[in-house]
Fold this sequence. Notes:
The protein contains 14 helices and 10 strands. Strands 1-2-3-6-7-8-9-10 form an 8-stranded parallel beta barrel, surrounded by 5 helices. A two-stranded antiparallel ribbon has the order 4-5. It has helices spanning 13-25, 37-42, 44-56, 80-83, 105-120, 151-157, 167-190, 211-224, 229-236, 243-247, 261-264, 268-285, 306-316, 340-358; strands at residues 2-7, 30-34, 60-64, 88-90, 96-100, 125-129, 194-199, 254-257, 289-295, 321-325.
Amino acid sequence: xxxxxxxxxxxxxxxxxxxxxxxxxxxxxxxxxxxxxxxxxxxxxxxxxxxxxxxxxxxxxxxxxxxxxxxxxxxxxxxxxxxxxxxxxxxxxxxxxxxxxxxxxxxxxxxxxxxxxxxxxxxxxxxxxxxxxxxxxxxxxxxxxxxxxxxxxxxxxxxxxxxxxxxxxxxxxxxxxxxxxxxxxxxxxxxxxxxxxxxxxxxxxxxxxxxxxxxxxxxxxxxxxxxxxxxxxxxxxxxxxxxxxxxxxxxxxxxxxxxxxxxxxxxxxxxxxxxxxxxxxxxxxxxxxxxxxxxxxxxxxxxxxxxxxxxxxxxxxxxxxxxxxxxxxxxxxxxxxxxxxxxxxxxxxxxxxxxxxxx
Length: 359
């Protein structure tokens, strides 16, 4: 099993090299570098130098389109929609939001440009991080509304989209994400890089976890009164729930998910096992390697040891890659853990154990 972390802490090579050595000492064999729109605008040469330093340290270079165009997850801002308002997503309640629609041709051209930048920086794996349409909850918007009803979406759908979040709407929603990923993965292969995809757990009730949706319903009712069941389903749906369909993308090499039980407020072992096994089944079916993630941010005090359970389940289901988000338990961000030092120590101990067992 390969072990790694995400990284976005510095663009100064003096500090990056020290961080890379700490990752090596922690048992890491690859680094998921966040390659943001800020990097595209101002740090392309620095990113290339960081990639070189990563390889020199003996680790594989992955690039993550962190927050890119608002299509991929990430705690960073996107400039592309501000410069291209024609790409904004149109919500079911008529609002436009500054997140680019994956179906818009300009968005797809921009994403291909990011792949070009990764190739120029000599990346080895493109890490497609939780691709999705606009999800209000991610930005603190509890309005019962969902995307997208823009002209590009209507054109691809072949007419007016359902007003409610029906099964047909959901299927179209997921098909659009898979379609853009299919295009990007093919382009990544053409540029000489491998492709990894991470889907955030969704379809929660269908997997036996109705609690997040129920908590959301109560939160909305406390703000503005009643809300329909279909609206709740739309709000908690993110990305692609059909693991088989996503894992079948022809140019995909690594498939996985991030079963963050702390984030979803669910039973730790059950949540990790259910989603890990589902991802493992789809990865095996389509001949993909399997990546799973451990949540090393917002870990509550006194619950740090649960991460060892997550690593054990990853081994049991046959993961080829395990990673933690993020380096040093995200201590540089406001989403740091209650005790980031302890979380990083546990992650490092588990990574070193796994690497020793693999030797």
